[in-house]
């Protein structure tokens, strides 16, 4: 950049800063001057947003194309900053070199607790650099590394570094390329987290792993880890390859886990069978802390809806996002429609069955029941009648015990 042009830009930015922070705010002024000088020394273009928000707790520089050179200038300015606690640097093409500057800055910065390095093309080299710094972490509580092309090898470095961490609460590794080996490392880490430290701020609470191609093989170590882990509260496995078999493996851990509060499994090849298994497991586990399950892309069956209604009687706060076909909704309405139909005839369901039970056995065959409902012209379509019959014949013995 031409030196005269740079000096002009520098002057304009200084004037802008004077209007924003005022000359009485010496810490901000000092930091701004340091940043502008660092930009001049490195030959990078200053980011005006840095100057506008320098005195705030959150510094959001997402999508500014800072680059590795710009990252060096930022790092110089932030080394001794005591104000910023949340640093957002998503989508800035930092690469491994930019990550190195940020990690070096964290060696002296004692205020930043949350760091977002998502979508910065860190790859394996960047992961090594981040891992090396995090292995001696004393301040960072949340780190986001989404969309950085991290594979199993990169995941191993990150996990190995965090396995002895006493502070990290949130780890975002979504939109990466973590496979079987990486999942095994993550599973091992989850199982080991409980042994790290008993302090309040010493264990991982959120693990975000969406868009990583996780399937049944990867689900096994995570399921086993959930058996032992008593700290993780949020697990995001959305947009992976979790099918019914993988869900069953996760259920092995959910059957005894008493810490997990939120599990996200939407956009997976999961069917109503897997959804039902998950719900059964959660409701049977009396120690389960799950209060939110997100499977909104799964179309569930009537049994799922009924089980959820029953579960909410005991746990009103249980929130489950799911999808349902209109036919399922109609089937669920069948019992109410039939009861209303009988009420208009001054009958109860018991009266209806007793009229069919000529021998007084308290039992009626499903064939007899279907025939009687049709002859009575009850306003039920074929599917509703079939569902209602199955509901009354819970044991599938073709006989309805109405006692």
Automatic annotation (TrEMBL):
Endpoints of the signal sequence: 1-23
A Pfam family annotated for this UniProt entry: LRR_6
Keywords for the protein's UniProt record, in alphabetical order: Signal
Name of the protein this chain belongs to: Leucine-rich repeat-containing protein 74A
Species per Swiss-Prot/TrEMBL record: Liparis tanakae
